[in-house]
């Protein structure tokens, strides 16, 4: 089974910086080469799933949410690894039934996220999974959606955190497990 160090090494080796995308001044962290490498992808999923277990390896979450869109790619296999359900957090207008919605600011604009009102049952413990923690706005909005359903966000697991943007000032007391901090 791969360890966290293997996952971090894979992230360092395979992540590609794309300058000025999607707009000038933003350096996009392209993790698709990590996903295309089976060993790297397996290592990061195992490492992210560790955030949903206690020190004895017992699963401590009931659901894993992934934020659109790259969060889906990571959160679904994390949920499978933990043996729990996966819930997509979608952009506005993408879910067909009644939703909770939250508008928020992100690194280069504004957005609205939604979740089906019945996706998370009251009292369920939820792990939030995404690729990059930048300003913290997406995590804060997702936590608000989880709580609107009656669930409890118990932690965040991300591939990388952009520490220079100080996202933890926005995520508050929510524990964050980042495989790599830049």
Explain this structure to me?
The protein has a domain at 55-181: Rossmann fold (3-Layer(aba) Sandwich), CATH 3.40.50.2020. It is built from 6 helices and 9 strands. It has helices at residues 4-14, 32-36, 38-49, 70-82, 137-148, 168-171, and strands at 16-19, 27-30, 63-67, 85-91, 99-106, 109-116, 125-133, 152-161, 176-181. It is globular, with a radius of gyration of 15 Å.
The biggest sheet amounts to: 7 strands, mixed
**If you average the pLDDT, what whole number results?**
95
Assigned CATH architecture of the domain at 55-181: 3-Layer(aba) Sandwich
CA(first)-CA(last) distance: 26 Å
The helicity comes to: 25-40%
Query: What is the name of the CATH topology of the domain at 55-181?
Result: Rossmann fold
Q: How does the SSE layout of this entry go?
A:
Blueprint: H1 4-14, E1 16-19, E2 27-30, H2 32-36, H3 38-49, E3 63-67, H4 70-82, E4 85-91, E5 99-106, E6 109-116, E7 125-133, H5 137-148, E8 152-161, H6 168-171, E9 176-181
Parallel strand pairs: 3-4, 3-7, 7-8, 8-9
Antiparallel strand pairs: 1-2, 4-6, 5-6
Helix pairs in contact: 1-3, 3-4
EC number: 2.4.2.7
Subcellular location: Cytoplasm
Keywords: Cytoplasm, Glycosyltransferase, Membrane, Purine salvage, Transferase, Transmembrane, Transmembrane helix
Can I get a quick summary?
The chain has helices spanning 4-14, 32-36, 38-49, 70-82, 137-148, 168-171, and strands at 16-19, 27-30, 63-67, 85-91, 99-106, 109-116, 125-133, 152-161, 176-181. It is of the alpha/beta class and 182 residues long.
């Amino acid at each position: 089974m791969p360890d966290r160090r293997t996952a971090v090494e894979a992230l360092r080796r395979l992540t590609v910086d794309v300058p000025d995308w999607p707009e000038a001044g933003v350096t996009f962290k392209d993790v698709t080469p990590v996903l295309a490498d089976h060993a790297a992808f397996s290592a990061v999923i195992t490492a992210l799933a560790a955030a949903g277990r206690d020190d004895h390896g017992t699963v401590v979450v009931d659901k894993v949410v992934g934020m659109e869109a790259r969060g889906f790619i990571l959160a679904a296999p994390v949920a499978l690894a933990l043996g729990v359900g996966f819930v997509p957090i979608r952009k506005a207008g993408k879910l067909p039934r009644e939703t909770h919605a939250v508008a928020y600011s992100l690194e280069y604009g504004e957005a609205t996220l939604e979740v089906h009102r019945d996706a998370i049952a009251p009292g369920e413990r939820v792990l939030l999974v995404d690729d990059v923690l930048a300003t913290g706005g997406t995590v804060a909005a997702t936590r608000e959606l989880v709580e609107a359903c009656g669930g409890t966000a118990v932690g965040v697991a991300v591939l990388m955190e952009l520490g220079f943007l100080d996202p933890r000032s926005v995520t508050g007391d929510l524990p964050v497990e980042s495989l790599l901090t830049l």
